[in-house]
Amino acid sequence: MRSFVTLLAGTMLAMWTAACWPQAGGPNFPARPVRMAFSSHASNPALYGKLPFDINKDFSSITLVGSAPMVVTASPALPAKTLAELIEYARSRPGAVKFGSSGVGTPVHLAGELMMQLTGIKMVHVPYKGIAPAMTAILAGEIEITYVAVLTGLQHFRAGKLSPLAVAGRSRYPALPEVPTAAEAGLNGYEIDFWYALLGPAGMPASLVARIQRDAAAILTTPEMKESLLAQGCIAAGGRPEELSALIRSDYELWSKVIKTAGVKLE
C-alpha cells in the first residue's frame, strides 16, 4: 500500500512542480516544494528528541492524501475471540500475552503501548525487524497479538489464519464490515491510522497551498481513485490544510504522552 501511495504522490509532485515552477526556487523556497509525509512524522519528535526541524513551524500543511486504520490482530490459538475478551484475558494474566511489532518506536509498537495505557493491562512487547517477521511470528503462534494495516492482514483474515478483533478507526472498514471498531468493542479513544499527507515548506503562499489542495482533492475524490486506493487498503481523503494541521498536532500530543509514559527509547 505504501509503495502505491508513494507512487501516486510522486505523480502528483511531478505535476505540481512543473505547474508551479515560476513560483518555486529562490533561497527560501525550494524548487521542489511539495513532499510526502507519513504518520510517523507526528511521533518522531518524541522518539528522537531534538530534530533539525520543527514539525509544526517548518512545514505548510496541504492535504491528507489517505489513511489506513490499524487492525487489532490475534492468533486463532488465543482463547479470546473479541477485543473485550482479549482485555479481560490479559488483565487476569499480566505478562502472559505477547504482542509483536515492526520494531521499537514504530507505530505498531506504540499501538500496543496505547492499548496497555488505556486499559491497564500488561503485555510483553516483542520487537521484530519489520512487519513481515512479526506476521511470520504470529502465524507460527510465537506471539498472540499484533497490529496491522488492513491490506497486510486481509488474506490471513479471509483464510482464517488470523483473527481481526477490532478496527482502530472511527468507522468500520469496507473490506471488513463484520469487524467492529475499537469503540464499538468497548475501547474508547483507541483510534490509530497510518496516514499519508502532502506538506510544503514553511511560508508557502496560501494561494499555492489552496491550488494544490484543490487539485489533490479533485484526484482523490474520483470514484476510480477511491476504489483504487481502497483496494490498496487506504481510504482516500483530500481534506483542508487546517484539518491536516490539527491531525498532526493531536497525533503529536497523543504519541508524546504514550512514549513518555511507556519510557520508549530508541537504541
What attributes does this structure have?
single chain; 267 residues; alpha+beta; D-Maltodextrin-Binding Protein, domain 2; 6-stranded antiparallel beta sheet; two-stranded parallel sheet; 9 helices; 8 strands; 18% strand
Give the percentage of residues in beta strands: 15-25%
Supply the CATH architecture of the domain at 2-63 and 195-239: 3-Layer(aba) Sandwich
End-to-end CA span: 28 Å
Uncertain spans: 14-31
Structural class: alpha+beta
**Order of SSEs:** HEHEHEHEHEHEEHHEH
* Biggest sheet statistics: 6 strands, antiparallel
Helix coverage percent of residues? 40-55%
Provide mean pLDDT, rounded: 89
Counted by DSSP, the helix tally is 9
Bulk shape: globular
What is the fold-level CATH name, i.e. the topology of the domain at 2-63 and 195-239?
A: D-Maltodextrin-Binding Protein, domain 2
Rg on CA atoms, Å: 19 Å
Q: Please give the number of β-strands.
A: 8
Question: What is the CATH level 1 assignment of the domain at 2-63 and 195-239?
Answer: Alpha Beta
CATH superfamily placement of the domain at 2-63 and 195-239? Bordetella uptake gene, domain 1
